[in-house]
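2024-03-11 09:14:02 DEBUG pipeline.ingest accepted 1 chain
2024-03-11 09:14:02 DEBUG pipeline.ingest length=278
2024-03-11 09:14:03 DEBUG pipeline.predict start
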Amino acid sequence: MSNGVTIGQAAAFVGITVKTVRHYHKLGLAEEPVRDSSGYRRYGSADLLRLVQVRTLAVAGVPLAEIGPLLDADAAQFATALADVERQLTERIRELTARRDTLHRLSDGNRALLPDRAVALLERMAGLGFTADEVAAAREGLVLAKALVPEGFDDHLAHVEHALRDSRFVALSRRAAESAAWEPDDPRIAELATALADHYLASPEQLRIVTGLQARTEAATRYELIARHGEEEAPAAARLAALVESRLRAAGVRLPGVRPSGVRPSGVRLPGPDSRRP
């Protein structure tokens, strides 16, 4: 085949590197031409066609290990194999698109960890007068709840969204947030606990903020992780939460023995910097 081309020319014609051509030979995807009388390997039209076919399938996403059998298959087998490759590529595209979307969301710390619906709830809290620390605390609680009790997360959001339409609930929740700065023996804490418990008992839908995730958190390990987040809370906040729970239990509300910090009876105020001991 003195009229053939060298490996370098073949690679250039096909649009790949010499190293790639040799790799194809090593994998058995294309036969290596025999040397001519001058000691050179010359690639004829059939060799170039095979290289083009291999390169085209490789660029299309077909794994190299599958290209040989694919090229040697009959028309029906070839069509079936291509359909399978297309399915795999579609799944890969979907996965890559999801990763790209996550990268875009990283520009917003909230959206990197929470769905848009939860982010909107946090923004709504800020608009209702909750401080930045209180919103940050709510964010931490929502992130934990989503990660540890995902099956109940949407319902929990719905309960909080509904409660935030109630001005009395908002006022009590903000008052509970303020109480973290009080002394633990402040008589206002007992008064506020009674007001909070009475409000929950009169509003079954809002009471689910307290009981909803607890009912779904069956695994002890997940429950403890939520319950003990932000454990070093302000003594006043701890006393308020304990009093509210005591009043709810006395009224027949079933609550676990350990209080989950992620769904405080004091409202939507969740664990965060503002609820910890200074």
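2024-03-11 09:14:41 DEBUG pipeline.report Residues 75-105 form the longest helix (31 residues).
2024-03-11 09:14:41 DEBUG pipeline.predict end
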